[in-house]
């Protein structure tokens, strides 16, 4: 359990001041002024990591501002880096809000203005992985992995990943997209081709992706890989879907990665990701969306005899997923959908259409929800872009047993069995 900062109420007057935060009119009637809150603008070159006193990444409440009540606290940190001001603890600098300003643990005034965190590219990102949390349910014999940061000896979580150890691939990654996901511009990703690996996955896994051509040659499919069409690291949770730079860095954890055809990743799948973020940030859908993005089945290519051969990048591990999927649920309005993208650029649409309706979902509702979900950029006419489908969060409509189990568990967690597919007001 995360530690919480405790505060001592010194006098009865302070208690009255605290009470005044919940009743402005009452405080004014007694002639006692409101105690100012503290504010942090996330657009002001916020280069350092920031979490609240519960070690959660804080929401933004007023335009681009984090609102901190008097006597509440934040932690500022610069893991494996260096602050530009001396005396600031890179592993978790407490910032207590007192009357409109921040004080450290020694009641000295500190400020976030012009505070910057410089990271070394060789150590970025300084992520932590936590395994086997008994409170996290993972389907399909997968193993829970939490990815985040250690701040003040506590864990600040960014992603929950259900990882299939035997296959070396994530079943899905769970995260939250907030209404403010696009507030911080000019995000600088980690160094080119850098992916973090903790104890779960060997640190040299990235070479599997660099040797994809050799893997396909070993399978007899060298003609399918060239400078135009190739398989690359596809992140389930994308950096575009998260708010803070340190959250975005966490998406480069190798447990969040699965093999994905480049043209699919960069066209229709990217269009789906952007459409979901657009709906959350610009639509009237509440302040956040719960998202599960995952993989399903193994992609195949036919050998010279016409026999389908499953595609693995290394022996029987690191399969090229046949499908990528994205479950999106809006808790404030109780509506959502699950999308499926076909990750094989060599199959014709008539074949994929039949497989979707026979093995995945009884009905494709993509065209029905195009307008309300801002999905106009998805182009299902070109096979190299991949094909996108949609299904309602209705277990009785879902054919694949693993996906049906995941949806059932998600609905139980959401506390609802009646999820609308879309809302026309969310345009």
Automatic annotation (TrEMBL):
It comes from the Eukaryota. Residues 1-26 form the signal peptide. Gene3D superfamilies: Extracellular Endonuclease, subunit A. It holds the Pfam family Endonuclease_NS. Keywords: Endonuclease, Hydrolase, Nuclease, Signal. One of its GO terms (biological process) is apoptotic DNA fragmentation. InterPro entries: DNA/RNA_non-sp_Endonuclease_sf, Endo_G_ENPP1-like_dom, His-Me_finger_sf, Non-specific_endonuclease. SMART domains: Endonuclease_NS (SM00892). One of its GO terms (molecular function) is single-stranded DNA endodeoxyribonuclease activity. One of its GO terms (cellular component) is mitochondrial inner membrane. Residues 155-396 form the DNA/RNA non-specific endonuclease/pyrophosphatase/phosphodiesterase domain. Belongs to the DNA/RNA non-specific endonuclease family. This is DNA/RNA non-specific endonuclease/pyrophosphatase/phosphodiesterase domain-containing protein. It comes from Zophobas morio.
